[in-house]
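Hi Y.,

Following your request, here is the sequence exactly as I used it, all 73 residues.
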Amino acid sequence: MDAKKSRNEAPRRFSRRVEGIRGSINPSDYELLRRFVTDHGKIMPSRLTGLTAKQQRQVQRAVKRARVIGLLP
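Below is the corresponding structure, written out as tokens. Let me know if you'd prefer a different format.
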């Protein structure tokens, strides 16, 4: 057995920005949500944040709700 990786195998991505966060993301958690929004107010894509698809959807929902509340731009 060879220990080499195949060419087509992508390196595993780990969620660096949501370490230690389990469960749902609270829209009123301003400090956490600021990490996922750019200076211009755009939500960062998962390829930059390293989130899974499920986590990205939770962040997206929380950011949009925080905008309605008035916590984020």
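The longest helix spans residues 53-69.

Thanks again,
Q.
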